[in-house]
Amino acid sequence: MRDFVLEFIRKIPSLVYPEGAQVQAALDSVRGVRKVCDLIEARAEDPHCPHCGATRIHKHGIRSRLQRYKCVSCRKTFNMLTGTPLARLRRKDLWLQNAECLLCSFVLRQIGSKLHIDKNTAFRWRHRFSSWLYEDTPPVLEGIIEADETYFRISQKGCRHIDRKPHKRGGDNSSPGLSKKQVCVLTACDRSQHSIEFITGLGPVKGKWLDLMLTNRIAPDAIMVTDGLKSYSHFCQKVHIQHVIVNNKLRNGGCYHIQHINACHSRIKGWINHHFRGVATKYLNHYLWWRHELENKHITSNIQLFQAVLC
C-alpha cells in the first residue's frame, strides 16, 4: 500500500488538467472535513451528556470522523453535534464553503451553483446554520440605550395552506396605519455598538412584549431613549430606569436621540430587501440573527462565522 501511494504521488505532476482537477478537489474536500471536525471538537472543553446532563462520560469510538462519547449514567452515546441544529447533517466538506456563502449573503440559487447542491438543500442548510446563531446571546445593553420598533408585512411564502384569500398581482394589499397584518420587530442598541433584535408580535408594540424581551437585557443604571410611545414609559417605570423621550424626526436633545436605531432599521430592511426580496415571517428571526452576527460581530471570514455558529 505504501509503494502504491508513493507511485501515485510521483505521477501527480504528469496528470492532465481534468484528472489533476479531480485530485485537487478530493484533497480540498479532505482538508475541509478535517478543518470542520477540528472546529467542532474544539467545543469539547467540558463535555457533558446532552440527554441527561451528566458529566461522567468516556470515549466510545469515532463515527462520521467525530469523537463519540458514552454516558455512564444513561448509557446513551453522543458527539459534539448531538442535540444541535447541525446534528445528522451530511457533507461536512462543504460546511465552510456554505459559511462563506452566508458571509456573502448569497441567494439560494447562487449557493446551489457554487456548492453543486440542490437549492432545497441550500435552504435547509441556511436555516440550520442561522437557527443556531440564536445561541450567541446578545449582551446586556448599558449606558444610553436607543429603542424603537420597525415593521414587516406578514409573508406566508412557502406555506401550503394560508389563512387568507390569495393576493392578486397589481393590487394594493396594504392597510393604512398599523394592523395585525404587520410584524413588529423590537430593536434596541447602546453607544457601544451592542444591539438586540426580536420579533415581538403583530401590530403596535405592547408593554407586555417589552417586559418579556427587555427586562433582563437592560442594565439597572441605563438611560433609555425612545419616542413618545406609552409602552416604553410603562416599561421604564416598571423596571425603574431613567427614560428620555425625544422627537422621532429631530435631533434636538444633545446626546439623546434615536438616530442610531433608525439607521439600524434602515440597514436591516435594506439588507433583506436587496438580497432576498422579502422573507417568510416564520423565518424572519433567522435572518435577524444572521444579520446581527455579520454586523455586530464584525465577522470577516467563513472560519469566524462557523465558530460563531458553534458557540
Describe the 3D structure:
With 311 residues, this protein is an alpha/beta fold. The protein has a domain at 144-159 and 177-279: Ribonuclease H-like superfamily/Ribonuclease H (Nucleotidyltransferase, domain 5). It is 40% helix and 16% strand. It has ten helices and eight strands. It has helices at 2-11, 17-41, 95-103, 108-115, 119-132, 207-214, 230-239, 259-275, 284-296, 302-310; strands at residues 57-63, 66-71, 77-78, 144-153, 182-190, 195-202, 223-226, 242-245. It has a five-stranded mixed sheet, with helices on both faces. Strands 1-2-3 form a three-stranded antiparallel sheet, with helices on one face. Helix 3 crosses helix 10 (302-310) and helix 4 (108-115) packs across helix 5. The radius of gyration is 24 Å and the shape is globular. The relative contact order is 0.12. The mean pLDDT is 82.
What distance lies between the first and last C-alpha atoms, to the nearest angstrom?
41 Å
Structural class: alpha/beta
Overall 3D shape: globular
Q: Spell the H/E element sequence.
A: HHEEEHHHEEEHEHEHHH
| CATH topology description of one domain | Nucleotidyltransferase, domain 5
Low-confidence stretches: none
Q: Any guess at the CATH architecture of one domain?
A: 2-Layer Sandwich
Please, what is the average pLDDT? 82
Q: Kindly report the name of the CATH homologous superfamily of one domain.
A: Ribonuclease H-like superfamily/Ribonuclease H
Q: Biggest sheet, in brief?
A: 5 strands, mixed
Number of strands: 8
Q: Please give the count of helices.
A: 10
Radius of gyration: 24 Å
Strand content: 15-25%
Order of strands side by side in the largest beta sheet?
A: 6-5-4-7-8
